Amino acid sequence: VMSILLHGDAAFAGQGVVYETFHLSDLPSYTTNGTIHVVVNNQIGFTTDPRMARSSPYPTDVARVVNAPIFHVNADDPEAVMYVCNVAAEWRNTFNKDVVVDLVCYRRRGHNEMDEPMFTQPLMYKQIHKQVPVLKKYADKLIADGTVTLQEFEEEIAKYDRICEEAYTRSKDNKILHIKHWLDSPWPGFFNVDGEPKSMSCPPTGISEELLTHIGNVASSVPVEDFKIHSGLSRILKARSEMTKNRVVDWALAEYMAFGSVLKEGIHVRLSGQDVERGTF
């Protein structure tokens, strides 16, 4: 499995989660063995100029904290983009480290239907209106090279338009939204045929007192014989043993019993987070 994350340029530079996940990228329990980050860099964040949005020259500079290679590529050159993406995939598979592809491009229209970009970016949009669209630019090159004929190109465009039109026509006949078709992994038994959630009923999850006592005793004992334990810890273990004997639980012991009962069923439990190793909480 190769993870690919798609970012906008302003989001890549501006969202803390990007910096945080880069720092998780090589931690033993969290790594995906390299993520490919594709930044669609249209050089404008909604209506904000880059110079008003960040202090670094490139939106991708945040990736330098983990020395990830960053490829800046002209998105008007599809073959260069393909080449760079192949190099990125090869880098990731060879070194199992993150890599960034910065697609330097532009946004032909506004951020949304309500946005008129000429208000805030008049000079940039004068340039953009003169730009030949990438599809036409590339088609002209292929036709000039003799790689495809004009007729083949037009047939390809017509074929694609037809696919879109047919899908649009079919969409008008859909009266029911099948939610479960949109889930990555539809949970069996969670939705009925029409995609509606079934009534939520939970099987009983209780366990016998005998098992709880067993878990409590194990959780308050030291697994190794003749092991000199810190006096502060032995106090905690002693208190836990007393609680188990007196049929009393606090949050920590209740959590131990929950984890213990799951482990007893052969289900792997992984703890992560603040001070887990020390058991502070």
UniProtKB/TrEMBL annotation:
<dbReference type="GO" id="GO:0006099">
    <property type="term" value="P:tricarboxylic acid cycle"/>
</dbReference>
<dbReference type="Pfam" id="PF00676">
    <property type="entry name" value="E1_dh"/>
</dbReference>
<keyword id="KW-0809">Transit peptide</keyword>
<comment type="similarity">
    <text>Belongs to the alpha-ketoglutarate dehydrogenase family.</text>
</comment>
<keyword id="KW-0560">Oxidoreductase</keyword>
<feature type="domain" description="Dehydrogenase E1 component">
    <location>
        <begin position="2"/>
        <end position="179"/>
    </location>
</feature>
<dbReference type="GO" id="GO:0004591">
    <property type="term" value="F:oxoglutarate dehydrogenase (succinyl-transferring) activity"/>
</dbReference>
<keyword id="KW-0786">Thiamine pyrophosphate</keyword>
<protein>
    <submittedName>
        <fullName>OGDHL protein</fullName>
    </submittedName>
</protein>
<dbReference type="InterPro" id="IPR029061">
    <property type="entry name" value="THDP-binding"/>
</dbReference>
<dbReference type="GO" id="GO:0030976">
    <property type="term" value="F:thiamine pyrophosphate binding"/>
</dbReference>
<dbReference type="GO" id="GO:0005739">
    <property type="term" value="C:mitochondrion"/>
</dbReference>
<dbReference type="GO" id="GO:0045252">
    <property type="term" value="C:oxoglutarate dehydrogenase complex"/>
</dbReference>
<dbReference type="InterPro" id="IPR001017">
    <property type="entry name" value="DH_E1"/>
</dbReference>
<dbReference type="InterPro" id="IPR011603">
    <property type="entry name" value="2oxoglutarate_DH_E1"/>
</dbReference>
